Amino acid sequence: MPGQSLFPLLEPLLPRVRKPVQYVGGEGNSVVKPWDDTTVRWCLMYPDAYEVGIPNQGVQILYEILNEQPDVLAERTYSVWPDLEALMREHGIAQFTVDAHRPVGDFDLFGVSFSTELGYTNLLTALDLAGIPLHAADRGDTSPVVVAGGHAAFNPETIADFVDAVVLGDGEQAVLRITDVTRAWKAEGSPGGRGELLLRLARLGLVYVPAFFDVSYRPDGRIAAVTPTRDDIPARPSKHTLTDLDSWPYPKSPLVPLAESVHERMSVEIFRGCTRGCRFCQAGMITRPVRERNIATVGAMVDAGLAASGFSEVGLLSLSSADHSEIGEIAKALADRYEGTNTSLSLPSTRVDAFNVTLANEFSRNGRRSGLTFAPEGGSERLRKVINKMVSAEDLIRTVSTAYAHGWRQVKLYFMCGLPTETDEDVLEIADLAREVIRAGRKASGHRDIRCTVSIGGFVPKSHTPFQWAGQASYEVTDHRLKLLRDTVRADREVGRAIGFRYHDGRPGIIEGLLARGDRRVGRVIERVWREGGRFDGWSEYFSFARWEAACEAELGPLGVSLDWFTTRERDEREVLPWDHLDSGLDRDWLWADWQDAQREAELDDCRWTPCYDCGVCPTMGTANEIGPTGRTLLPVVSVASTPAPAASATASAVSPSDASSSDASPSVASPSSMVPARASST
């Protein structure tokens, strides 16, 4: 019978695997519904280890929204480690959900949330274990519809063979509308099978269906055209943009895992989107415009989440949380409310130009004074102009001096290596900055026990950004520059021991680049790597560059392209890019102009506070920046627990900056990204 638990078969195997508790379910606020009482059944997957996937906000939000619908069931699954995978294959146990241990293959819809491209091989493992044919073209009517989403699905072409549909952008309204269409189709007796369901979803603009588009290639390997095979679907599928975040205060009841996870806290997304214009940042580009939650909603969500979960730390999340128009008021009011309790507040890394001691003191008032994290990104001021990160060395030294003078003893600085136009000298300026940070800290604090950790990730050009045309630095260049930097830091006897240095080699970034900007021909590489044992490629202990390199040579060589062709090659303006037929709202001509500005080292202001500079998002998507201040306070506390999700078909109107009291949040059958232990590279 469909929907039967596999736990009786699974339980005897758990003592034989590492961390068995991650497979048993039963988390606080998890939901298990009777199978036969529901009409539409979703399985949601974060394709990484449970400890990484369980805190993911996107999956948690969609899980809760779907389960609020009386006739809808949503359960979760995560990637199983190779030790359990081997036992499952030996004993014939299918990929299962952690909620009720039901077979993934029994569900109507299988939603997979990608925060990183290095999770693609884990998708194939889950499909195979679930008994779902790897290729969408081979699936029958009894297989779930595989729906991909998340930031790493904005160029879904490399996995086009393996997914049935793709949701671009925010997922809250999209999953409810997909559910409505599926419910109606099933009520009619499922006419036309899965093909008809996919056609209905595509016609409404809810999903991009790769099978409904053909790709042709030029003799030199470049794409000639991507064209729809039907005239009754949108020729350019577009992203979903949620407006009025205050109407969507999720998650109301955060999941509380029994097993250890990478983030032991509850999180509230205080706004979605970013208009700072960092040219390397795909997340900032594809989530435009900015949509804030107002202070009252944030306070109510924190209150409800703490009551429902018992967590002692609250993370206020966004791409740049200190940029919230009421962040000072939010921080003070929350610190006042929870003073004397064991509840602490935290922010992700803070922009140098958004930091102030008052804000930092509020966030550390009820918790320990941990280190501060800043992200200059580029080593030299010239390079920071190229990437539009408008921070000077003087700004950084002034900021960290202030922090050290007020009692902080540790600062972490995040940079990237391999940025466009970068030279050895640009990278070596990171060492100069780190040395100045230590000296300034010792002077400001009067102490010598000052620490600065330099963390460096390899830059990977991404789709829908001004750098989508850039050639990626080879791993040899990246490794050479990192070695130069490491040796330079260590050679300084005065401050070298006070500077920590963390980095990864450049090879994983090259594979991430292949997957991020590849086309459908790369799918055969992914499959070959998977068949030869590729799993958990985002984890350094499992990643094998040699395996990927050999697969590229075997699969791409006969087609006249290569690993380098997809990564280190610079594209010209007229080249058809694999994702050009997918509409993120960003005008292609504007992106190209910004790429030219980058090479001229010209900076661009944040459009939240300046006139529009025509990136294209707001007129294309019918949206606008939704920002405060609202002038509200956190008292009285307004409950969010009883707030129902707005109707799936409702479309909130855009709010202009002058009267914005609403806001927005970001799951797209994925989102926001989680930090992954031993992550090979990040952008």
UniProtKB/TrEMBL annotation:
InterPro entries: CHP03960_rSAM, Elp3/MiaA/NifB-like_rSAM, Radical_SAM_N2, rSAM, rSAM_horseshoe, rSAM_sf. SMART domains: Elp3 (SM00729). GO terms for molecular function: catalytic activity; iron-sulfur cluster binding. Pfam families: Radical_SAM (PF04055), Radical_SAM_N2 (PF19864). Residues 646-683 are annotated as: Disordered. Residues 260-502 form the Radical SAM core domain. This is Radical SAM family uncharacterized protein. It comes from Parafrankia irregularis. The lineage of its organism: Bacteria, Bacillati, Actinomycetota, Actinomycetes, Frankiales.
